Amino acid sequence: MATLVRLTSICRRGVKPLLFRNSLLVRPVVAQKKEPDSILSAQIHSTAPQYEVGSGSKAASRHWTGERALSVVLLGLLPAAYLYPGPVVDYSLAATLTLHGHWGLGQVVTDYVHGDMKVKVANTSLLLLSAVTFAGLCYFNYHDVGICKAVAMLWNI
């Protein structure tokens, strides 16, 4: 019935008046109940659910908080690397950049890699890549000029 009313309004007045009126919000003249009231009241459960929302582990929340804290530390380390270059800042940058990259790529693996074996291989590869990255940055800091001075040398070119 409501469909007929809407079709006749389109045919008589055109589309433009129909879109700017409240005629689309009109309920049909004859509305039928899909289910009797007794069935609706039977669907309401008075028992508590077996699981509570938010009552589980706080690991995801703590991980998110750790990621945000690491991002804030990185924001502080970048000016510190410019103002006070040295071994402490170099090794701090090596650790925070590696951890930041590890967590970021871990989210990519979580979102885009599917299948049990593929996920295990991807996570193992990511862990290996992160370990090699951290070891390489520490090696560079110990045996060469360090991250801060290397970036300063790149800016001087």
TrEMBL record:
Membrane topology, as annotated: Multi-pass membrane protein
A GO BP annotation: mitochondrial electron transport, succinate to ubiquinone
GO CC terms: mitochondrial inner membrane
Keyword entries, A-Z: Electron transport, Heme, Iron, Membrane, Metal-binding, Mitochondrion, Mitochondrion inner membrane, Transit peptide, Transmembrane, Transmembrane helix, Transport, Tricarboxylic acid cycle
Positions of heme b binding: 100
Matching Pfam families: CybS
Main location: mitochondrion
Entry binding sites for a ubiquinone: 112
GO molecular function, one term: ubiquinone binding
Localization terms from the record: Mitochondrion inner membrane
Functional pathway: Carbohydrate metabolism; tricarboxylic acid cycle
PANTHER family for this protein: SUCCINATE DEHYDROGENASE, SUCCINATE DEHYDROGENASE [UBIQUINONE] CYTOCHROME B SMALL SUBUNIT, MITOCHONDRIAL
Family under the similarity heading: Belongs to the CybS family.
Stated role: Membrane-anchoring subunit of succinate dehydrogenase (SDH) that is involved in complex II of the mitochondrial electron transport chain and is responsible for transferring electrons from succinate to ubiquinone (coenzyme Q). SDH also oxidizes malate to the non-canonical enol form of oxaloacetate, enol-oxaloacetate. Enol-oxaloacetate, which is a potent inhibitor of the succinate dehydrogenase activity, is further isomerized into keto-oxaloacetate.
UniProt subunit comment: Component of complex II composed of four subunits: the flavoprotein (FP) SDHA, iron-sulfur protein (IP) SDHB, and a cytochrome b560 composed of SDHC and SDHD.
UniProt-recorded name of the protein: Succinate dehydrogenase [ubiquinone] cytochrome b small subunit
Organism of origin: Scleropages formosus (Asian bonytongue)
Lineage: Eukaryota, Metazoa, Chordata, Craniata, Vertebrata
